[in-house]
Design brief:
The chain is mainly β. Helix content is 5%, strand content 50%.
Amino acid sequence: MPEIVASGKFNWMGGEAMKLSVGKLAISISVAVAFAVIAFLNLRLKGRSVEFLTEHTDAVDMQPSFSPDGKTLAFVRFKELVLLDLSTRSVKKVRTKGLFGIAHPAWSPDGKKLAFSAFHSRSYRNDGGGAHLIVMDLKTLEWKCLTPGSDFNTRPSWSPDGKKLAFTKLSMQGASICVYDFQRKQLQKLGLQWGRSPSWSPDGKTIAFISSRTKSPDVWLIDANGQNLRPLFEDERTDEDMPCWTVDGKFVVFSRQTALASGPKKRDLWAVKLADKTAFQLTECPQNWWAMTPSASPDGKSLVFALRRSDHSVICRIFVDWNKIKPQRLGW
């Protein structure tokens, strides 16, 4: 697999600087095998609207995110950042010295930056081992940390104008949604007692998130200014997670499983229509399969997500007719 290798250091007082050094690119024969596996899987799925984008053997591919132009996916493979060109299916691994445990990449609206959570080497600063919110320039690979400290900061979501970043902050007091303002360089709690996995609406007015204000994690909405808290989808028999919006703002997509206390056997993708709160099942997984972390395409025609079974997972894409939604059977 080709690699982009970057090196740099953490500077807690004056920002972060990073120098790019490009190493030799090497493509092993496993890449050719991967393409053959993908072709075979997609041939088996001919006539269905499901597509495997990565190989399933010995892979742990998670948390895909569409670029704003729809041409590239950022995702996490074995907790490292990877970019997938959807036209050529070529992949590039981005290695960043000093950062590890990459999770939940999210593209800026202009496609020039990625936000994600990561740990950093304790040799830089003994901060209690917190997970930090990182923003990286994709051209220069320079990055900066927005959240020094011991809390766990993860699952970022950009505002449509690129001026703010919502994310989950997990501290000793619990999980809450915070917003970082790039212009003011300020961090503000959204005013929630408990919430996680925020997702900004396409018009920038609303944030969808997960709340356990009732008996189980459900999908809620809140205005971007922290007002007008209301439920969107509630079911005490199931647990919901990782909401995302369709590009037209008409649907919120999320993962759903039976409540943890019931011993869930699978996880599927669902969508709820904002106009009337009607819920639709999008995927139908076999037992012990998990459809997770959806991301909607900019053209509104498809969703990418991680499909997990046992100790490995792949990135999949389904094409959805939003006027006639039917659950699509998954598995390989």
